[in-house]
Specification:
Layout (H helix, E strand, L loop, with lengths): L1 H36 L14 H23 L2 H4 L4 H14 L6 H20 L9 H8 L2 H25 L4 H30 L8 H27 L2 H24 L7 H23 L13 E4 L12 E4 L3 H9 L1
């Protein structure tokens, strides 16, 4: 039975990665169409809500999240979580063909580094003990250590939203994805509590009579809405092939951290596992730096007789932008000689 359950979890996790990776592309195409017809989501517009493609992406993402949620019921997190890397691969490949978003060789290296590092972290991360009731989850969530972590996360989210987003949201991808990842880690804890409640209720032990269940459900709803809102802004503003891996890295790292603090599993680790986690984290950071350093890099204009201007809109590719080609540099030579 255990083997069969793991197989189900594996298949569901693979389907989840396929659905979510595809949803990034569908939503990005919907956001582009909406931006052409109204105000961009990156600057506060909501015209994307009228775009069928965006809703197709939204439905695809929800299907992926549902598959991922069910996968955790049948298989341990140590099997399901690393397969989230499939999302990066799917979105990068589809973005290459459908959005004309090119990844340089260094970008590919950064993507691979992120995936490898994240897998190492997850493989060597401590396994949590599954609570047997929502009340047990509540006891774990109200420990001083986790309350401090939650308070710090909420404070960082507020600082990012109120201070950094107006100043750097359009230029620094870490602002939007930081909000998504911090709220996502809290979402995972709430979703786990809800999953336990549903599972026990189906087994005949009603967990929805407890107020804690509804509290976790409310937290999950708020956090999911926050994630979707700022993920839309990130997708609307930055290259999809960059958003996917960085979001995956940050979300995975913060989720593992939140889980370790809440379930106190770090104490049982040996030196080998801790060393492996540190190496994995360094690999993730290195990959993130490589990806970030290659963001929106365009080849320099060739020297010679052809000079091209384009409007520089970060939402447009070079082919989409309006431009003027000057086929002779004589006017520049004359201008320079006359100065």
């Amino acid at each position: 039975m255990a083997v069969a359950d793991n197989t189900r979890g594996l298949i569901l996790a693979l389907l989840s990665g396929l659905f979510i990776g595809t949803s990034f592309i569908l939503k990005k195409k919907g956001l582009r169409r909406a931006a052409a017809a109204g105000t961009r989501a990156g600057v506060g517009g909501y015209t994307y809500l009228l775009e069928p493609l965006w809703w197709a992406g939204m439905i695809t993402m929800l299907l992926g999240e549902v598959a991922n949620f069910i996968a955790y019921v049948y298989a341990p997190a140590i099997l399901v979580t690393p397969l989230g890397a499939l999302t990066i691969i799917v979105s990068a490949v589809l973005a290459h063909f459908m959005l004309s978003e090119r990844l340089s060789q260094m970008g590919v290296l950064g993507c691979v580094s992120c995936v490898v590092g994240s897998v190492i972290i997850v493989i060597h991360a401590p396994q949590e003990q599954s609570p047997n009731s929502v009340e047990e989850v509540w006891d774990l969530a109200t420990q001083p250590e986790f309350l401090i972590y939650t308070g710090a996360s909420l404070s960082m989210i507020l600082v990012l939203i109120l201070h950094f987003e107006p100043l750097h949201g359009q230029t620094n991808i870490l602002v939007y994805l930081g909000i998504c990842s911090l709220s996502g880690a809290i979402t995972v804890v709430s979703i786990k509590a809800i999953g336990i409640a549903i599972k026990l209720t189906l087994e005949g032990i009603n967990q929805f009579s407890y107020g804690q269940t509804w509290f976790f459900l409310s937290v999950a709803v708020v956090c999911v809405i926050t994630q979707l809102n700022y993920l839309n802004k990130a997708l609307d503003t930055f290259n999809t092939a960059i958003v996917s891996p960085i979001y995956y890295v940050m979300f995975t790292t913060l989720t593992i951290t939140a889980s370790a603090i809440m379930f106190k599993d770090w104490s049982g680790q040996n030196a080998s596992s801790i060393t492996s986690e540190i190496c994995g984290f360094i690999t993730v950071v290195s990959g993130t730096i490589i990806l970030y350093s290659t963001k929106d890099v365009e080849p320099p204009a060739p020297l010679g007789s052809i000079i091209t201007w384009y409007d520089g809109d970060p939402m447009k590719s070079l082919e989409e932008a309006q431009y003027i080609a000057l086929n002779s540099s004589d006017c520049f030579d004359a201008r320079v000689s006359g100065v």
